[in-house]
Specification:
This protein is mainly α and about 425 residues long. It contains 19 helices and 6 strands. The protein has a 4-stranded antiparallel sheet with strand order 3-6-5-4. The radius of gyration is 23 Å and the shape is globular.
């Protein structure tokens, strides 16, 4: 027991560091926007101004929404946390390549621990798949990446974080709608008033937002309550349900490693440009061992995270759910590939990608693309969807294979 405790103590800093890296790929402005039917009235308590006065407006709204004395008392005690704002303002720029990020995230420890969880909770995973159609490997990969199976859930007071980010005027509407659900969870005893989690308000072993915890959680161990911080069955069932709600297609594939030929109509290789498997076969895309792809009757896009000479994956409709979970393509593809490992696939072949751009070179490229009229969003050095799309268009214009991977050659050919 002492040896095991020592091992865990030694691993925790490593797990915390790698989990923090993963969380950098999911900045909180990627939290989901309000959907139809959800009440959001930020004018009821506008952002800014005196914090205590602002809280009174929130309290009035909470009381009208049915929050009782326990929840209201928690709100009264909530304080402004400058550490949260510091984290919000200093989100790490996610500039790692796919092979760098996935190589660190898909660790031997996580694979071993995940396989142990699949064995230990096999009956719960089977029930989750039966009810929601989500394969065990999918849930396990998210569980691993989000918190290392509950080991690193965050140490920020969740209510303080949410009131701070809601009072702050940078993105108040993103966070404001999470406060009342959290107060209701506290009010009915599902969570303590001082519950802790990630700096942007996520709670539990797969980092659920309060509104999801309140409305869509599942009592997986049938003990009469939902505990997403401590109950693995609750975590497994709730995560599977969340994925189903986001559009997971029952028991269908999500991603598949492939080998691409030297010649291909590269402009057709965008992730969202889904083609029948028969078409990919016709163009010479194969399984990693060179055998023809099995036609499963579905359509898939071809994702080339590091261009035509790097790793290659077919991405099915279910991969879109990964993007719904986290809009960082690198994070989403890492989670999807990790799930294939839990499903029995070998490690992917990184191949020999062309050198990419440094952070400063990426910013230079984005500046040049903006000057040519492209909308790349913020010039931040991140290879996001808009930048990839602009790169493809420039590659086509310049007669370079349009694989969406920016190289020094491309940078040199684009005039500012």
């Amino acid at each position: 027991m002492r040896l095991r405790s020592s091992l865990i103590a030694a691993l925790l800093p490593v797990m915390a560091a790698t989990t923090a890296m993963a969380q950098q790929s999911a900045p909180s402005d990627q939290l989901p926007a309000p959907t139809a039917g959800q009440k959001l009235d930020p004018t009821a308590a506008p952002c800014g101004g005196d914090f205590e006065t602002w809280k009174q407006g929130v309290a009035e709204e909470a009381k009208a929404a049915g929050v009782g004395e326990t929840g209201l008392d928690a709100l009264e005690d909530a304080t402004f946390d400058t550490r949260v704002l510091a984290r919000d303002r200093a989100q790490g720029v996610f500039s790692q390549t796919f092979t760098q990020f996935s190589g660190r995230m898909i660790s031997a420890y996580r694979l071993k621990q995940g396989n142990a969880m699949l064995q230990k909770y096999g009956s719960v995973f089977a029930r989750a798949q039966q009810e929601f159609g989500v394969q065990p490997a999918i849930v396990t990969a998210f569980w691993a990446l989000e918190t290392d199976f509950g080991a690193v859930q965050g140490d920020f007071n969740t209510l303080n974080a949410l009131v701070t980010l809601s009072n702050d005027c940078r993105r108040p509407a993103v966070f404001r709608r999470q406060i009342i659900p959290l107060l209701k969870l506290i009010d009915r005893g599902d969570l303590p008033a001082d519950v802790k989690g990630a700096w942007a308000g996520e709670i539990g072993q797969t980092q659920m937002l309060p509104i999801d915890y309140l409305e869509d959680s599942v009592d997986g161990d049938n003990d009469g309550k939902v505990d997403l911080r401590n109950s693995a069955p609750d975590v497994i069932m709730t995560t599977a349900k969340k994925l189903e709600i986001k559009g997971w297609k029952r028991d269908q594939p999500w991603v598949q490693e492939v080998r691409v030929p030297d010649s291909l109509p590269w402009e057709q290789t965008a992730r969202t440009n889904k083609m029948p498997i028969s078409q990919w076969n016709q163009w010479g895309v194969t399984n990693p061992d060179g055998s023809p792809l099995a036609d499963n009757g579905l359509k898939a896009g071809l994702a080339l995270p590091m261009g035509r000479k790097g790793p290659a994956f077919l991405t099915y409709d279910n991969f879109d759910v990964y993007i719904e979970w986290n809009q960082s393509f690198t994070y989403a593809l890492t989670a999807a590939v990790m799930a294939t490992r839990f499903a029995g696939a070998p490690a992917y072949d990184p191949r020999n990608a062309e050198p990419g751009l440094s952070l400063e070179q990426m910013k230079e490229l984005q500046t040049k693309l903006e000057a040519r009229g492209y909308d790349v969003g913020k010039v931040d050095g991140i290879l996001g969807t808009n930048t990839r799309d602009a790169v493809r268009k420039e590659q086509i214009r310049l007669g370079i294979p349009a694989d969406g991977w920016p190289t020094p050659e491309l940078l040199g050919k684009i005039s500012s």
